[in-house]
Amino acid sequence: MKAGPEGRFEALYWEHHRELLAFIRRRTETEAEDVVAETFVVAWRRLDDVPDNARPWLFGVARNVLRNHLRAQNRQTLLKVRIDEQPEEDQPDLATAIADRHDLAAAWNRLTGAEQEVISLVAWDELSNDEAATVLGCTKSTFAVRLFRARRRLLHLLNRTTHSRGTT
Amino acid sequence: MSEKSTLLRAVGALKPPTPETTEGASHALLDRVNARIAKGVTTAEEARRLTPYQPPAATRRILAGAAAAGLIAVGAITLSDDNTPTAHADWSPVPTELRPAEMDEITNICPAQFFGTPGGEDPPEVTPVLAERRGEFQVLLSASEEGAYQYCILLPDPEFDSGYRPHIESYDPGPSAQIWPSDDDGLYTAQTGTPWQPSPDHGPMTVFLGTVGNNVEAVELNTENGSFAQASVMDGWFLVWFPDAVQLSDTATVTTDDGDELEVTIERPGD
């Protein structure tokens, strides 16, 4: 292992590059390697700013890099889920049994991109509210309110989806 | 009580799969990073711009006279023998969900931070857990993982710029207090209900709130004067209010995630 800044940088890379690739691949179908490479270039240039808990900071950089890339191409991030990939069978776990997964996936896909992003940071990337706030560059309180609103809207859409299916 | 709600865990199960990154691909990517660093294509200004924005620390609201167990309301009326309260005619035993615009409104008007912490102490970090409407009153409940809670009722009041006068009550039970019910099908009332009168135009009301066990999806509460209401339930917390000065019955009806309806004894502080 190298010592000094190079050692720290390589440690950051090996600890986080896989989850950063996954984070970006959930948001875009191409360019994940480009975005992650640029993220680590920024990390190298700003190494003194990288906090001990580097994960949310790196996610925040990666998100900004991705937004730059997509803005340049007039595209948006994808956080949609494939409804046809959702299994039909009953799930033994309460969480997966909360609703028919097709309904949940359909409701999820009707959320705005911003709402999906807020929820996915917690539900998919398993960040705390504090860490997710770092990714989005907002305060923890602001993030908590955004998450609360997004969850309420998902529940609302889920209820509507389930209800409309039950009445047809 | 798990940190993630059932909804978030259900969404977690929708997480799209991503391909594994091989060792070779990892090394190739690191080579690509090092080549870019060597070329110096990213300027210092670009790198600065791409780092996450760090918002300044929030300014703490200063509230004269706020105590650890705080009650803050502008113009709240203390109950007395000679008041002539009117009934909450539009009160509903079934709460309604707030519309998106109402949700924006209540989260903007109600404080994001815990009210009433004595000077010099860090306030508990509370986050919104549920919001509801019964009649003309909207309520937002926020709570911390350690059991501190705060609820904010929006009372329509044309004298306020927002059109609402917020009534806020907050309470931090401390580190050794009970937070959750002892049973997964149970119910624990953190606030056992002190009646108060929001204004001369309104009759008294009584708020009850607390926590529910892991299995509980819905709660119906009864009062000793024969009234009943469905509580709002979210993230392990419940909240309900009744018109008038009322006391809860000893038991409540809970609906579990299996769809079973059970009569359970309500746990209270000090039980």
Give the mean pLDDT of chain B: 82
Structural class of chain A: mainly alpha
How many helix segments of chain B?
4
- How many structural units, i.e. domains of chain A? 2
Total number of domains of chain B:
1
CATH level-four homologous superfamily name of the largest domain in chain A: Winged helix-like DNA-binding domain superfamily/Winged helix DNA-binding domain
Protein topology:
The complex is a heterodimer of chains A (168) and B (271).
Chain A: H1 4-25, H2 32-45, H3 54-72, H4 94-97, H5 101-110, H6 113-123, H7 129-136, H8 140-167
Helix pairs in contact in A: 1-2, 1-3, 2-3, 3-7, 5-8, 6-8, 7-8
Chain B: H1 6-12, H2 23-39, H3 44-50, E1 71-73, H4 100-109, E2 127-134, E3 137-143, E4 149-156, E5 164-171, E6 187-191, E7 205-212, E8 216-223, E9 228-230, E10 232-234, E11 237-243, E12 248-256, E13 261-265
Antiparallel strand pairs in B: 1-5, 2-3, 3-4, 4-5, 6-7, 7-11, 8-9, 8-12, 10-11, 12-13
List keywords for this structure.
heterodimer, A: about 170 residues, mainly alpha, Rna Polymerase Sigma Factor, Chain: A, Arc Repressor Mutant, subunit A, 2 domains, elongated, B: about 270 residues, alpha+beta, five-stranded antiparallel sheet, four-stranded antiparallel sheet, globular
